[in-house]
Amino acid sequence: MTRSDAGAVAAPVVLYDTTLRDGTQGEGLILSLADKIRIARMLDEYGMPYIEGGWPGSNPKDVEFFAAARTMNWRSAKLAAFGSTRHRANRPEADPNLRELVAAETPVVTIFGKSWLLHVTEVLGATPAENLDMIADSVRFVVDRGREAVYGAEHFFDGYAGDRDYALSTLRAAREAGARSIVLCDTNGGTLTNELVAIVRDTMTSLDADPDAPPVSWGIHTHNDAELAVANSLAAVAAGVRHVQATINGYGERCGNANMVSILANLALKTPQALVPAGGGDLNGLTVLSRSVAEIANVAPNDFQPYVGRSAFAHKGGVHGAAVAKVERSYQHVDPVQVGNEGRLVVSELGGRANTQLRAEQLGHQLEGVVDARELSRLIKQLEADGLAFEGAEASFELLIRRHQPGYAAPFRIVDFTVLVEQRDGRDLRAEATVKLAVDGETLHTAADGNGPVNALDIALRKALRAFYPQLDSVHLVDYKVRILDGGAATAARTRVVIDSRDGTRSWSTMGSDTNIITASCIALADSLEFAIWKSAAELRRRDERHFTTATPPPDGQPETGRPATGDPATGEAAAVDPAAVNPATGAPATPGR
Ligand SMILES: [Zn+2]
């Protein structure tokens, strides 16, 4: 799309989030009532204009959601209740589904109806004419009760392919009954972009040309079965559609829905298209939004997710690394800071000295005088030769550098540990760990049981550290990977353990390597906890700093400097602030917006 396409650019695209309804159709995605409310709040605070909260006719949880929603104040969002057209045999007033939709008391009601004759006759057992009446009656029923009606044309593209004129007549029925947003749904998600655009254009042109046609906002709702959901949504916008339905992170049935995060970033950063929320909303809050929703849904964030994934701006290898060091945008399609993500150099044996140095610089160090770059590079090469590949374990790499930095004090030290594993008479395996730790000049002994040796060690370590570092309560271990480094040595082989950890919106990976898998695990565990403590301490320092700078006005009307650039003022939640941005010498934040 170009700026000369002025007519298309003028009307803003309105985003309609259906994470809480269509998103929850995704396999393995279960949201409690409290989860749904938290996500709805987050979307509202983000500036989402429409939030589809659920299908009150389908389950009691969604009825409860709308009951709770009524008692809350919504900043930007209009809530929508979703449901089907009336049953073939019911009058609208007597239709339980329509009654629930109205009882939800939302300003918006989205009715979906059948566009595809196959579904009308085979699934509903209705005649084509009956289906048109069902659509019209249902839309009119909610419009007469003061609701803004959105009409979702289910299976529209398949319906159009089967019988174009009938598919169009279903839209006319909805429009005449008062629907002012008509959403074309690629429910099976199999339509190719060029076909979809042709159908969208023909549909809009045909209906808009009807005599005395009331204006409607055309919408799109796509699924990702052909991996085209985002592309199809953007192409529909380029063709003139102004209402886009999608879900955060693309959650949804089968291969998912269109991903709202990518749609938002693409429209805001790559097209001149005006948007609601304006400018795409808090674009640099996008990464936090995506990861927070994943966290609430208890789905591991996808590292490879465009724009917001941990690897979305990760660079590996000498050539890329060196090029990125010179010109950051040489291997990136956008600046990661724009979407609240960060660039990352993946440390590996492939990377040369430039990579290592840049990664260390990214960590906010002035290498000169703090850690000698050559010495560091030599050390890393030596460790990697010993099997300590840092790739995928950047938190351990960061700790390695910090430990070489003057003034760094480890928050704790494991003095010794014992792990006992026992299985008798075919009963469940039992593991017990005892650890001795040095913390803050004290020596602590703890013991814990676990369902395995690593679990027991983890519990024992946390038990000892909890009194000193309560923030560790929010740290979860989410994955544990083991790799044998020199397979030829069989059971005497060196083992590399990588542990992935998470707290709220942040995730990190640490590693340990040893011929003994328990020792390797213990090193990786200890690194994970040490990293979490270091991160939260650095964040606290930043908050103090922020407090200080707001409490003390800058002299002579000078603009404030050193203000943390990120963080969501709406939720009060700190964004994933990289503590490395703190100058280690002064404790002051380095220049924001790296
Ligand atoms: Zn859908």
How would you explain this protein's 3D organization?
- This protein has 594 residues and is an alpha/beta fold.
- α6 runs parallel beside α8 (164-176) and α16 packs across α18 (517-551).
- The chain is 37% helix and 19% strand.
- It has an 8-stranded parallel barrel, surrounded by 9 helices. It has a 3-stranded antiparallel sheet with strand order 12-13-14.
- It starts with 5 loop residues before the first helix and ends in a 43-residue tail after the last helix.
- The model is unreliable at 1-9 and 547-594 (pLDDT under 50).
- It is built from 18 helices and 17 strands.
- It binds zinc ion.
- Zinc ion binds at residues 22, 187, 221, 223, 257.
Q: Using the CA coordinates, give the radius of gyration.
A: 28 Å
Structural class: alpha/beta
Total of DSSP H or I helical runs spanning 4+ residues: 18
Give the neighbour order of strands across the main sheet: 1-2-3-4-5-6-7-8
State the low-pLDDT regions, or none: 1-9, 547-594
CATH class of the domain at 80-270 reads: Alpha Beta
Shape: elongated
- The average pLDDT value, as a whole number, equals 83
Task: Write out the distinct hetero groups bound to the structure.
Answer: zinc ion
The proportion of residues forming helix, as a percent range, comes to: 25-40%
Q: Which fold name corresponds to the CATH topology of the domain at 80-270?
A: TIM Barrel
Q: In CATH, what is the homologous superfamily of the domain at 80-270? A: Aldolase class I
CATH architecture of the domain at 80-270: Alpha-Beta Barrel
Largest sheet features = 8 strands, parallel, barrel
Strand content: 15-25%
Distance between the termini: 31 Å
Q: How many strands in all?
A: 17
